[in-house]
Structures are given as structure tokens and as C-alpha cells.
Amino acid sequence: MLVLWLVIAVSALVHWLYRLNKDYYVMSFFAKRVRTKDGQPLSSLVALPKGVTIFGNSFDLYGKDHAGVFNMSRQRSKLGQSYVEYGMGTPIYNLIDADSADIVLNNQNLITKGLVYNFLHPFLRTGLLTSTGKKWHARRKMLTPTFHFNILGQFQEIFKTESQKFLQQFKGQDETIISLNDVIPRFTLNSICETAMGVKLDEMAEKGDRYRENFASIEECFIRRLSNPLYWGDTLFNLFAAKDYASALDVVHGFSSEIIAKRRVLLEDELESRKETQTADEDLYAGKKKRFAMLDTLICAEKDGLIDHTGICEEVDTLMFEGYDTTSIGLIFGLMNMGLYADKQELCFQEIQEHIEDDLSNLDISQLNKLKYLDYFVKETMRLYPSVPIMGRATVQETELSNGLILPKATQITIHVFDIHRNPKFWDSPEEFKPERFSPENSQNRHTYAYIPFSAGQRNCIGQKYAMQEMKTLLVAVLKQFKILPVTDPESIVFTTGITLRTKNKIQVKLQRRK
Ligand code: HEM
Prior knowledge:
- By secondary structure, the chain is of the alpha+beta class.
- The protein has a single domain (47-513), classed as CATH 1.10.630.10.
- It has helices at residues 2-20, 66-77, 98-105, 121-124, 133-143, 149-168, 180-195, 205-227, 234-240, 246-277, 294-303, 309-340, 342-355, 365-368, 372-384, 417-420, 440-443, 464-481, and strands spanning 24-25, 31-32, 35-36, 83-87, 90-95, 175-179, 390-394, 399-400, 405-407, 412-416, 482-486, 495-496, 502-503, 508-513.
- Strands 4-5-10-7 form a four-stranded mixed sheet.
- The longest helix has 32 residues, at 246-277.
- The radius of gyration is 25 Å and the shape is globular.
- Protoporphyrin IX containing FE (HEM) binds next to helix 12 and helix 18.
């Protein structure tokens, strides 16, 4: 009798699970399924890659090394269309085409970042990059004026000075091989600290080096969580893994706190001296005579009760990380490409010779804007090597997209910038380096969202103009003095996953002084 009841109970359970499986992917820990508006099978709109275990795609990344995690997405992109996966109770909508990117990035309801951004919370807490809703709106409004054209114009002197300082290290050398991963990040960290934070790193150089080293441990932690679904939530992670990274977090937070403390003192002095010399119609924030660092805006907003000290720390950590790491990657690959494509380097150089004085004295934004080919060159570099290869969003409610998909609440949306930028549907010979693609005539028929290195829509990169200006300034300064020759074979580059684009090997070039 008992056996009969047991059989009935099991059959009922199986039947119930079978019916439930229509709406939920039962084996993938009850992930709610993505539906289509017209009831067509989901496979008519997206690809549905099979998982490696019976648990949907939950454990597809488990046990993979950093290169394996990166390559997994590249393999998936060969499906030729955007795809849906189901992992650990969550639907994941992966975009590899410009049309879907357009739909998602322009959806006003899709401004909340995805689950993986939670892995950055111990480091950045909820600053501009990771926050959402009212908090994000308020911070974006507060920081937008600090990237105003006038302010960027005033940063140009710093970029120039830092570029010249960068070149000083090769003084007296006619030829030298450099590891770009070792020398570039110091330049970009110095630049962001002096522009955005208003603090020179000269006497803090060692602390800057420690910041960068410890940043690498934080990234390690990020990847550990990404590739192990057991650590996706905070509870198990905090219990078993968080302590391994506590000291690295102390170092990076200590560094940013020291910068804030230094700037508070400098700002008080500066405001005092400005009060004495200011004329009635001078704007204290955009005064022509002296720069106003971005951090100053935050400190002044604190005085008005619009942000507190923790908020300032969040934004300083965010700006410092975003501002130094992303531009480093752009410059590393930009210089590598200069070496690899001598003819294109020459076109950049000739243009620089035409517009820029040898001592860089006229190198301001208007001159930089005349360097059209350099602009195409940097853009093409960021197409093939986008510093942010992946972006993520999450739905906060069931969301219907104009392409006919209905995404359940808490769906993760992954925008594979790396794959969109190499999608043959939008790019001819996508693997080839061809800066000319970005000339106005060659760009006019291209889908706007086929190229999104700085994202697009409401949550686009606030620092994109700053980044282009900084990267171009260093490239001009280097090309003025040196010819760049290739060292690293691009075929040998192994990409690995990270918070931003990473390679297993360091990238080297040879600098040869121009006669
Ligand atoms: C080559 C350089 C850069 C690239 C490729 C880049 C790319 C991006 C991308 C793709 C996003 C969107 C991220 C997402 O949705 O998850 C973003 C956001 C952001 N970027 Fe950049 N970035 C660069 C440089 C900078 C610089 C120099 C700064 C600051 C000085 C900066 C500050 C930010 C901030 C604060 C956000 C968050 C904006 C928001 O959500 O409102 N970025 N960046």
C-alpha cells in the first residue's frame, strides 16, 4: 500500500514538475523562462545553447581558467545570433548584435546593472557605475558638469605634462623595448589623480604602485565569484572567501581616502586665495585661471548636504578605477597597433607633423580635433580591443522588448561588446585592423550600435571625451619622439576574463628615437 502511495506521489510530483517546466527551467534551479510576445517558440528569436551539465548553463563556467571563461563567450558568438542561457535560477539574455543592443540600451527601464556588478560592491560600493534609480540620477546630475568642455580644456596641460614625464623615463635611450602593461598604467593613474582628484601623485608614487598591485587582487576576487555560482550571492562568499581580499580592499580604499584628505586641505587653501582675487562675474567652478578638480565638486556638494563622506569615497573609487584602467587598455593596444601597422603609424605621424609643434606647445583640444586619422586609429583600436568587453543589466520587472521577447523579472542581460564589434553582420572583414572604416563616408551606413566602446543611452560613459583626449595626447607625444616597432606577435595574445579586457601575456613594443 505504502509503495502504491509512493508511486502516486512521485508520479504527481513528476507531472507537476513537467507542467511547471513549461514556464520554468526546472533543472536550472527553477529559472523562469524567457517568452515571446506572439507565443512563437523562443528559438525563433534567439539561440539556446545547451549547457554542459543537466543543470542548464549553471555550471558552464565552473572550473574554467581565466582564458576559458573569456573564450566561452567567443565560442557562443559563433552561434551567429543573440542567445538565452539559464543559470542558477536566472535567465541570461546575451546580446551579440547591434539591433538588440539598441533596444536594451535605449530602454528607460533597463538602467539597473546586472548581478556581476554586485561583485564590485566591496570595492566601489554603489557609485555612479554600480548604483541605480534615484541615487544614480542624482550622482549623474552632480558629476556631469565636471566633464564640461571648458574643464576638459583645462586638463589638457596636465595630460601634456604627464605625457612628457612619461617620455622622460626613456631619456638618453635611442632604442628600448618596453612592456606596455608595466609603464602605461602609471601614466593613466597619475593623470586621473591630478585631473579628477586635483592631487599630484609625485610624492605618493609608491602608494600609487601599491594601489595598482592590490587592484589586481580585487580583480582576482571578481573572477573567482564569476566562475563559481556558489559565490554569486553574498552569504557564502562573505563566509568563505571575502577575507582573502580584505587587505587588498584596505589598500585601495586607504589610497583613495588619502587623496580625498589631501584635496580637502588643498581646496580650502585654493578657495581662500580665490576669494581674495575673484572678480564679481567669475565662476568659481569653471574659472579660467585655475582648474577645478572633479573631486572639488563633490566636496562642495557635501557642504550643501547633497552627498556625504561615504558617497565621496564611492565616486572617487569609481572615477579612479574607471579613469585609469580603461584608458590604460586603450593605450596599450593603441601603441601595439602603431607597431604592428607601420604604414598607418606613418599616416598618424604625418598628420601630427602637419598640425602639432615639436614642443607640443599648441597641443590643445582644437588641434587634437584636427588629427582625423589618429581619431580613426584610436576608434579602430577600441573596436577590436574594447576596454569594457562586456556590460550587464538586470530587469527589475517583467520587461517586454520591441523585438518580441518578454524577459522575466531579474533576467540578467549581458551585452557582449567584444562580439558586437566583430560581428560580420555589421563589419566587413571584422578581424582586420582598418582605421579608414571610421571616416564619415565609410561610417554613414553603419548601424549606430555596432560600435559601442563607451556604451550608449542613459548609462553611457561619462568620461568618453576625457578618455579620447588623454589617449590621443600621449600617442601624439610618443609619436613625436619615437617610431614604434612591433615586438609582441598578436597571434600570441591570449585574452583572459577580468573586470576589463585582459591578456595573459604582457604586450611589448620597441621605441626607436626619431632622428
Ligand atoms: C577608453 C576609455 C574608456 C572606456 C572604453 C570606457 C567605457 C565605459 C563603458 C562601456 C561604460 C558603461 C559601463 C556599463 O554600462 O557597465 C562606462 C561607464 C562609465 N565610465 Fe567609462 N570608459 C572609459 C574611460 C572613462 C574615464 C576616463 C572615466 C572618468 C574619468 C570614466 C568614467 C565612467 C563612469 C563614471 C561610468 C559610469 C557612468 C554611469 O553609469 O552613469 N570612463 N565607461
